[in-house]
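Per reviewer request, we include the raw input and output of the structure prediction for the construct analysed in the revised manuscript.
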Amino acid sequence: MHQTPTMTPHANHKFHPKSAHVINRRTGLEKLLLALAASLATLSPLPTAAQSTPQPTDWPAHPITFIMGFPAGSGVDIVARALQEPLGKVLGQPIIIDYKVGAAGNIASDFVARAKADGYTIAFGTAATHGSNAALYKSLPFDVETSFVPVTPILDVSNVLTINPDVINVKTLKDFVDLVKANPGKYDYASTGNGAGTHMAFAEFNSRLGLEMTHVPYKGGPEAIASMLKGETCCIMNQVQTVLPHYQAGKVRLLGVTTLRRVAVVQEVPTIAESGLGGTAGFDSSIWFALFAPKGTHPQIVAKLNAAVRTVLEMPDVRSRFESMGNSIRIESPSEFASTVKLNRAKWVEVVRAAKIAIQ
């Protein structure tokens, strides 16, 4: 078998000059790298992710974005717009409203759930987006319990049973119930979308009183109200603030508000609960509007935003404006509001179960 000859160094063997050149060149490169490392060590360390994140005391350092899940002109949007300027002045930074409309606010909620928890992306939510939707939708890409931090409520919003008298010509809640019961399945009611507060209020009402009506969801308040005014649907349980102009113009009738107490701006309209009809005792299907931050938002940022909203809501002109729309100011600390949200979710689970509602 052929073997490769082994080179045995001779005592007098000398390295070839080329080999010596390679060794010297490597030695020079090593010296250069060592010198570079030494110089870098004297520099300030690069900021870590934590160091590059704005500290809570610096917040807000630039504009804050409210993510809106409902269309421009809707009841939620009206409130957000009214809050936008005064809150921006209190915080010292502009408030931007970014519309991500659809799926009863779930698209907007999902966006905020995935956002950076730095206090600059905030959900403008409702009792539907962060309450009933969890019971209604079998699958959501976020967890309403754990993906958000409740920051602050803003308002309690009254809905009111509103009818087009050209479609269903009644003057009292009792007459409405009697007529619908005598004609099961004949009348269609509008809502601002599957799972919206307007949908849930009517679903609870129908479930309690044993009424059979067809639900017709629309893409927001403007479309839903237009359908009723045109006679495409008979009625809607929408926010007082959105139907008030049509009521004052004599285009619609208001049969009952969904709150336990009458609403000052339409004091002449009774509550559904006081009607005395079977199933209406204690009826309270009001909703709230509120702010939610992504999970992990620093408590100091949450507290600062809560305090700023409180300052705005206590301004006489702001309070007067909201109350003239038929709304009630709601002020709670973050922990108090977290309890409100939890109780509200439990309530809607029962309503959804009783009304046998499910949305894919």
